[in-house]
Specification:
By secondary structure, the protein is mainly alpha-helical. The chain is built from two helices and no strands.
Length: about 50
Amino acid sequence: MSFHSTAAQLATLAEGEGERHASISPFMTGGGAFVILLLLLWLTTRFNRDR
């Protein structure tokens, strides 16, 4: 598969052509990422007891 055909397929996919489906809310995605990052921050500071 060439780079050009791959890029064309990705552009078509990004434009949303084809079958329509319900997508995940951007607020849910952002909120989930925020919660995961806070959890990782808490774990990092919780187990970093070398000082």
